[in-house]
Amino acid sequence: MSKVADSQHLWQVWRYYDRTESRLGYRLLLGETKHFGWYEPGQSMWRFPTALRQMERELARRLGLQPGARVLDAGCGVGDVARTLAKENGLDVTGVDILDFNLINARRRSEAAGLADRTRFVRADYHRLPYRPESFDAVYTMETFVHAADPETVLSEFFRVLRPGGRLVMFEYSRTPDDQLSEQSRRALETVCELAAMPTWLRLNHHELERLLEKAGFLVEDAADVTERMLPMLRAFYLLGRFPYFVGRLTGRIAKVVNALSGVEMYRHQDAWRYQIYTATKS
Prior knowledge:
This protein has a single domain (about 5-280), classed as 3-Layer(aba) Sandwich (Rossmann fold). The protein contains 11 helices and 7 strands. The protein has helices spanning about 5-20, 20-30, 50-65, 80-90, 100-110, 150-160, 185-195, 200-205, 210-215, 225-250, 260-270; strands spanning about 70-75, 90-95, 120-125, 135-140, 160-175, 220-225, 275-280. The chain has a 7-stranded mixed β-sheet with strand order 3-2-1-4-5-7-6, sandwiched between helices. Strand 2, helix 5 and strand 3 form a beta-alpha-beta unit. Helix 7 (about 185-195) runs antiparallel to helix 11 (about 260-270). The longest helix is centred in the last third of the chain and has 25 residues, at about 225-250.
C-alpha cells in the first residue's frame, strides 16, 4: 500500500467519524462509545449503556487475563472499552487511534475516572504500530478492523507486538459472498462500506478472517456468531434512522446521514452480514 493511498484512506476514516451526524449520533445515543451492545434475552433494546458495558464485559471474559496484563486496544475511540477493562479487571491498557478528538476525549475521561495510570492513549495507525515485538499480553479490536486498508499488514502487526501465547480477540463483521446475495442486499452493503470507510468488510466473506489469521501465524480458537446479541440495538437504530434516512434520500444527501443509512439498510438486509467474535492466540 503506497503512502498516498494510505493517507487518503486515513482521511476517509477521519471524514466519516468527523461528520456532524456521526459526532452527534454517537454522543447523544451512546455517550460517544463506538461499538454495539450485548443484550441478554428479554432486555429492552433502549438500555444502551447497560448493553454497551455488557459487550465490554464479554470482551474481558474472552480475553481471560489476570490483573496487570498489558493489552493493546486497536482503535480505542474515546477509551470506554479500555476503562471498563482497567476498572473491572485491573488490566493495563494502551489504546491507539488516528483521530485526535477521540484521543483528547479519552485522556480527559480517564483522568476524571482516576484511571490515567492504567490507561494511556496514543495517536497511531495500526498498520504501523510504534511498539517493540512482544510488547503486549493481548490485543483486541471492537468493530475497528473493518476500517483497515490492508488487513494482512494489520494482522501481521498484531502478531508482532503480541508475546508468544498472547491472545487476540476481535469483535468484527463478516459478509455473505456476492453470489449468495440479492442485488439489493449487495448494493446496500457496498454503499455502507464505501460511505463509512470500511473496505475490509467487503473482503471478509464468512470464514475469510479465520483464514487470514492463520496465514498471519495465529491459532484460531473460536469464531462465534453473536449477531442475535446485538440485533436489539440495531433495531433501535433502524427505528430512529428511518426518517433522517428518508430525508437524506429525498434530498440526494445520503452521505450526510450515513449512520442512519447503515442502521436502516443493515437491519433490512440481515442476510448480508454477521457479527462475530474471533479468538486466536500467537502460536
